[in-house]
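By way of example, what follows is a protein record of this kind.
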Amino acid sequence: MMLNKEILEIVVKELEKFDTNHEIDLFVMDITKTTFEDLMLDSLDTLEFAMRLEEIMKIELEISEFPQDATISEFLDYLCTLKN
């Protein structure tokens, strides 16, 4: 069972590998307000990010059904549901 904090660390570590919106500091972002749209990931980056998470966490994501206006916190809840 993975804790929300562990999942957040994985998500932030993987997001750092992309050229996200430089105005957002991934270490201090407000996960209840920051959305994936705010990060400015293009569709290819989003797909690659999802594939990395699937591999690391041994889960299957339905990223196409996840809205771009979802917050990081909502995404973490989604990941927790899949992982636990």
Helices lie at 4-15, 36-39, 43-57, 72-83.
